[in-house]
Design brief:
The chain starts with a helix and ends with a helix. Helices cover 67% and strands 0% of the residues. By secondary structure, the chain is mainly alpha-helical. The longest helix is centred in the last third of the chain and has 27 residues.
């Protein structure tokens, strides 16, 4: 079920459960899950990092593989969680089932799109969002196109100013 997968993804990304339970009483659990909106994973992760007194490279125990510690840092890095990942997780955890992903396939498709740098359905579909995603995926082409446009505009401006002076 999409909601359960959203809970798992939330915990993997933030290192915390999305709901702060004081006890495991069924009434309290039902009340909190039905009434309380979870915080964004990036907010929880940044709060955790602010509370950490040690650096991530030194936080690993001597028996911990440094590569594993670095990958855990990359997963829980608040900057990498902001935006699409926050939106994907929160869409999977929405209270109303009709506003969640309709299937696990749709949920996994959004995760795949995020990993590929493509626009996801969980984020608002605005021109600036789609353009930013396109430019990030095609940096070289976007820079080349911008250079060509600037060159053409400059050449047009120089030509127009020479025509006026003649």
């Amino acid at each position: 079920d999409v909601y359960s997968l959203g809970l798992v993804l939330y915990q993997l990304l933030s290192g915390k459960h999305p709901y702060q339970l004081k006890s495991r009483e069924p009434e309290e659990v039902a009340h909190i899950v039905l009434e309380q909106e979870p915080e964004k994973p990036s907010v929880v992760s940044s709060r955790q990092q602010a509370g950490d007194k040690t650096t991530h490279t030194n936080a690993a125990s001597p028996n911990t593989n440094p590569r594993q510690a670095n990958s855990q840092f990359a997963i829980r890095n608040p900057k990498s969680l902001r935006g699409d990942l926050d939106n994907i997780v929160l869409k999977a955890l929405r209270k109303e089932p009709k506003r969640r992903y309709s299937s696990v396939l749709e949920f996994s498709e959004d995760i795949r799109k995020h990993l590929e740098g493509r626009p996801v359905t969980a984020s608002p579909d605005t021109f600036s969002y789609r353009a930013a995603k396109f430019i990030r995926r095609n940096k070289t082409g976007a820079i080349a196109a911008a250079a060509i446009v600037i060159t053409l505009l400059t050449a047009t401006g120089i030509t127009a100013s020479r025509d006026v002076n003649v």
